[in-house]
Amino acid sequence: MSTFNPMAEPYKIKMVEPVKITTREFRQNAAKEAGYNTFLLRSEDVYIDLLTDSGTNAMSENQWAGIMLGDEAYAGSKNYYHLEDAMKECYGYKHLVPTHQGRGAEQLVSKALISPGQWVPGNMYFTTTREHQELAGGQFVDVIVDAAHDPLDESPFKGNVDLNKFEKVIKEQGAKNIAYITIGVTVNLAGGQPVSMQNIREVSELAHKNGIKVILDATRAMENAYFIKVREKGYAAKSIKEICHEMCGYTDGATCSGKKDFHTNIGGFAACNDDDFATHMRSNVVVYEGLQTYGGMAGRDMEAMARGMLEACDDVCMRHRVAQSEYLWNLLDKAGIPLVRPCGGHGVFIDARAFYPQIPQEQYTAQKLANDIYEYCGVRSMERGIVSAGRDKVTGHEHKPKLETIRLTIPRRVYTQSHFDVVAEGIIELYKDRDKMKGLKMVYEPKALRFFQARFEKL
Ligand code: F0G
After folding, report:
1. Which of 275, 293, 312 corresponds to the end of one domain?
2. Do 143 and 291 share a domain, yes or no?
């Protein structure tokens, strides 16, 4: 890698999308209409959209050119074969099962591997992943290291699986009652924190010794590979592709949302090595997604994803991506805003409990913070706390996660340094007014994945 300033964009702008600049009064009305849920805002009322890095990225000219080469045959599209080749080149699994997005793959894997009553350990839950595991009759159990739940802990690999916790689950429940273990790389809800290669290797050894499969949530695997490259001894000279291959090599299969690392607006896949596992997923993909050679995607989308995959594992591209998160993180940190430390890959997470200590978690601290940031500066973020965590399927009680955060997620190649300056200015202004703020009450609660559609009123 060169010593070039990592914030300097390794691309230039060819097309622009105008955004609306609004007044605070306008945004207060829009927030009220949206039930104080940033998911329910209209995108055109948002100035800088940091809701998610999912499907919101800027594709390259090469990807857009690929869109014109869509082979929209129902069966055997040539774009499927390009995607299969790219997946093998970047990750190395034997079988590819395309899906419309990540959760489609999660459904296939959960249905193939979980028998009702089985446990599914994982390094912190992800919303859709856990939902599909539970729908298949499984019970998720968190085996992430304790450090992940502490926003102030500075460990470089806070996404790691705690081997003792995993071993305890095996001992207590019995290996045959464990469907598989999921390793998320990076760990979204922990703040985009990476998992080390050593940890993946050790988890794999322990799991396989007990006949337990390892499934990688490879949604941001290339970002994780970048962190391994810069933080773990022995990987500095390896390419992101080589690191991805090694990570995947310790696992039996993967689910992946194509909407992140690959810059595409839609897409995903499941992958594995075992022939029977692949056959099971292929028999379900035709029921729930589409034929096994398109899985819910148009041919053109598979082409864009194949090209995006090959582009994204470029070291310079990934270094710039992480540098943007770090830039915003540093601006906020310097101003004393309480953040999840260290900075993760796909965004900056604010510790809402420390930002608003006067608002208890039962009054949706982070939900209120996400709303206030929108009202103050037109920036949309996402709650990642008690609302996202939902309810225990058995007891009906709310899960109360230790981390009560909002996520300022950085779409890839979309915003510039001055956009991040505006985000920081707005949040710093809000921080000065923090003592005035009160919480929310929930007035509408959907049954599944409630954070998407829940509505609130101000207390
Ligand atoms: N796994 C992880 C780690 C994710 O972050 C996501 C999506 C999925 C699986 C599901 O993929 O959306 O394509 O169905 N995360 C988005 C986010 C929604 O905003 O973090 P999907």
Report:
1. 312
2. yes
Residue whose CA is closest, atom 20 of ligand 1? 52
Instruction: Give the integer Cα–Cα distance in Å for 156 and 358.
Output: 31
Q: Which of 312, 327, 358 is the last residue of a domain?
A: 312
Based on the domain organization, do 267 and 364 belong to the same domain?
A: no
Which residues on adjacent β-strands are paired with residue 274? none
Tokens coding 285: 């993909």
Residue 327 annotated as catalytic? no
| Pair 363, 297 in one domain | no
Domain extent, residue 332, equals 24-53+315-458
384 annotated active-site: yes
Rg (CA), the chain: 21
The whole-angstrom separation of Cα 15 and Cα 75 is 34
- Is the minimum distance from the CB of 289 to ligand 1 under 6 angstroms? no
Residues 193 and 322 grouped into a single domain: no
Per-residue pLDDT of the chain (459 residues; tens, 9 = 90+): 456 798 999 999 999 999 999 999 999 999 999 999 999 999 999 999 999 999 999 999 999 999 999 999 999 999 999 999 999 999 999 999 999 999 999 999 999 999 999 999 999 999 999 999 999 999 999 999 999 999 999 999 999 999 999 999 999 999 999 999 999 999 999 999 999 999 999 999 999 999 999 999 999 999 999 999 999 999 999 999 999 999 999 999 999 999 999 999 999 999 999 999 999 999 999 999 999 999 999 999 999 999 999 999 999 999 999 999 999 999 999 999 999 999 999 999 999 999 999 999 999 999 999 999 999 999 999 999 999 999 998 899 999 999 999 999 999 999 999 999 999 999 999 999 999 999 999 999 999 899 999 999 999
Contacts of 168 (CB under 8 A, 6+ apart): none
Is 274 a known active-site residue?
A: no
Q: Are 213 and 337 members of one domain? A: no
Are both 337 and 366 inside the same structural domain? Answer: yes
Q: Is residue 360 part of a domain?
A: yes
Pocket flag, ligand 1, residue 259 (CB < 6 Å): yes
261 lies in the same domain as 336: no
Q: Is residue 89 part of a domain?
A: yes
Q: How far apart are CA 424 and CA 333, in angstroms?
A: 10
Q: Write down the catalytic residue from 217, 252, 261, 351.
A: 217
Q: What is the CATH number of the domain that holds 276?
A: 3.40.640.10
34 near 393, Cβ under 8 Å? no
- Answer yes or no: 74 catalytic: yes
Is there a contact between 412 and 321 (Cβ–Cβ < 8 Å)?
A: yes
Tell whether ligand 1 has an atom less than 6 A from the beta carbon of residue 184. yes
Regarding whether 130 and 141 lie in a shared domain, the answer is yes
- ω into residue 411 within 30 of 0, thus cis? no
**CATH number of the domain to which 407 belongs:** 3.90.1150.10
User: Is residue 274 within 8 Å of 254, Cβ to Cβ?
Assistant: no
